[in-house]
Hints:
By secondary structure, the chain is of the alpha+beta class. It folds into two domains: about 140 residues, CATH 3.30.1330.100; about 70 residues, CofE-like fold, CATH 3.90.1660. The chain is built from six helices and eleven strands. The chain has a four-stranded mixed sheet with strand order 8-7-1-11. A three-stranded antiparallel sheet has the order 3-4-5. Helix 3 packs across helix 4. The radius of gyration is 19 Å and the shape is globular. The chain starts with a helix and ends in a 28-residue tail after the last strand.
Amino acid sequence: MIGAAAPPDLADDDVVVIAHKAISKAEGRTVRLSEVAPGEHARALAAEHGKDPRHVEVVLRESAELVRAERGVLVCRTHHGLVCANAGVDASNAAAADELVLLPLDPDRSARELRERIAAVRGVRPGVLVTDTFGRAWRLGQTDVAIGAAGFVALDDWRGRQDAQEREMRATVIAVADAVAGAADLARSKDSGEPAVRVSGLGHYVTEEDGPGAAVLRRPLDEDLFR
């Protein structure tokens, strides 16, 4: 469907950025609350934070670790290694009133498969990013970030280069994939009903190989200053 909807001049050096909800639905990553039986831990957390215990149960199932629970927010580390609110479990844009949408089981694999299918349908292999909306520890507001990637340089490492004053840069690693995800979300808007965006002009970040994906954006646990 994305390949058919893309403009006729879709090219190898474009980037297709897609909100994960469309992929999750296509992959069957949805749950009906009526089919969830909450456990004791979920019921206790729900009572403490004013949440539906069935929703909390799904969040716990999707979590490798409950990092923090405060002020009605469950900050979780998912089985993928993503740290986000509610393990990415969300009811917005769900098809039914009692339905929850989960993250893809493997967003990088989803991006690779989507890239190959677009190539089969259109004869071009643009880079692909799969995105979700995250909050940020040091900033207010939310922005989209890349949780899956194929054929795109997610991190641009400038360490070792010189700045304009010929000083060596020691910490600059640009989160290119996240920046593109945020820009695409602005172009798409939350209520447009259009999950996919084509981004042009970034061909120097598009690669022939699928590459390591968005997994490289996840901060290792031993570097997490908030623990």
